[in-house]
Amino acid sequence: MREIDLLDRYPRVRRNIAAREAAKPHQREIARKFGREYFDGDRGQGYGGYRYDGRWVTIAERMRDFYGLKAGDVVLDVGCAKGFLVHDFRQVIPGIRVAGIDLSPYAIEHAMLEVKPYLVVGSADALPYPDGTFDLVISINTVHNLELPRCVRAIAEMERVGRRFKYLQVDSYRSDEEHEKFERWQLTALTHFDPDGWRTVLRQAGYAGEYSWTITE
Ligand SMILES: C[S@@+](CC[C@H](N)C(=O)[O-])C[C@H]1O[C@@H](n2cnc3c(N)ncnc32)[C@H](O)[C@@H]1O
User: Fold this and answer.
1) 92 alpha carbon – ligand 1 mean position (Å)
2) pLDDT of 191
3) So what's the pLDDT on residue 27?
4) Ligand 1 residue neighbourhood (C-beta within 6 Å)
5) Quick one: pLDDT band at residue 94, thresholds 50, 70, 90?
């Protein structure tokens, strides 16, 4: 298990905390349904329009190079939403095989057509795949949406279905100030920790892959 930021080429958009902190409890409830309002409603309760813009190409390239992925390898994205990352894996590694899973029927229904056949609705803590199915299992910005026991199970599931590599990203904070910003920003997280807290969770889950945090600054 080691910390490395494979999202370091992802364009950093400054989070507009002021706009988000006005979110009311009922907007958070709406966001947690991960339906149209979360993906394609207004910014106060989610993405404010979750559209493909090619930004995952550089992430897929980074992972291809870091893990040495090639045609024939199989990659799973847990919390794949509309399938943007798995789409871009297919662009940068012709012949790679992909799968995605997401709790949101809305996201899967509105997924990119080219990858829709590879995506299923399901939960991160009960992955419908046999042990050791994938060369790489990725989960970005997703497992914190489960309450702690299920979050631990979700991370253990990544380990179970991955035969070689795993990469996990979650939000975190290193100080009271960052924690406070995170609380003002986040809409859907049920589990969150500082880096030491997350490392304890990763150990509990038996996680042996790479991981990184995104800090709300
Ligand atoms: C912040 S979005 C991240 C989407 C994508 N990974 C990205 O980074 O753009 C969180 C995603 O987690 C999904 N999600 C929430 N709870 C989940 C669960 N229990 N199992 C699988 N996916 C879940 C949501 O539907 C949503 O697509």
Assistant:
1) 23
2) 97
3) 84
4) 34, 79, 81, 102-104, 107, 123-124, 140-142, 145-146
5) very high
